[in-house]
Amino acid sequence: MKKCIVFANGKPPKKNVITYLKKCGYNTLICADGGANYAFKLGLTPNYIIGDLDSIDQNVLKHYRGKSEIIKHKRQDDTDVEKCLKYAIRKKYQDVILVGVTGDRLDHSFCNLGIVLKYYGKIRIKVLHEKSLLQAASGVVSYSSIPGEIISIYGFNKKTKITSHGLKYPLKNTALPFGEKESTSNIAVSDKVELKIKNGIVFIIREYNVLKKNGFFQ
After folding, report:
1. CB-based burial of residue 147 (10 Å sphere; 0-12 exposed, 13-18 middle, 19+ buried)?
2. Which of 52, 38, 120 is nearest to 81 (CA)?
3. Are the CB atoms for 72 and 32 separated by under 8 Å?
4. Tens digits of pLDDT across the chain (218 residues)
5. Predicted TM-score of the model (pTM)
6. Domains of the chain, start order
7. Is 135 helix (H, G, I), strand (E, B) or coil?
8. Residue 204, SS3?
């Protein structure tokens, strides 16, 4: 499976996070425009820098010329993160982790979370932000876990129903419409959690450090 990291222009991860992700097979680093500024500060060399290049510092751009493949897209009908995802899809990547897609602007954060839904089914997307790992899911999914792990689940409409096995607060054909009901800070009670998701997509948020410590990160 081809895996990549998309580094956006929000709050950056620590360098050891990128190092760990590369050990997990996410060997290609794609910077979305100004994400290259943070990669530069961390001493990382992107494989690709993609975007309209209006956010990258000129000294950073000069530094990476000849080291990274720089792809400029002037179009404004999609975000720089989307430009990176479209490139990854064309290059047959199946799995991508987005870092730096949340930060001090709620509109950017909200937009980037929406991208996870927008591209669902085209490429497997995870969002990593500090202690949390977010991904979308539908159908029947199961996860290795440890008792006590915090797992939060969020739906978007009343049609989507979730049934769970292995959670302290079970869901039984339960809808979790956004803004009305959620399963925040649910708790795993076994070494496996299974979800049956009908008629839609949900967000699942897990603890990055737990996944890393127990070798559950994929």
Report:
1. exposed
2. 52
3. no
4. 899 999 999 889 999 999 999 999 999 999 999 999 999 999 999 999 999 999 999 999 999 999 999 999 887 778 999 999 999 999 999 999 999 988 777 887 888 899 999 999 999 999 999 999 999 999 999 999 999 999 999 999 999 999 999 999 999 999 999 989 999 999 999 999 999 999 999 999 999 999 999 988 77
5. 0.93
6. 3-130 (3.40.50.10240), 135-213 (3.40.50.10240)
7. strand
8. strand
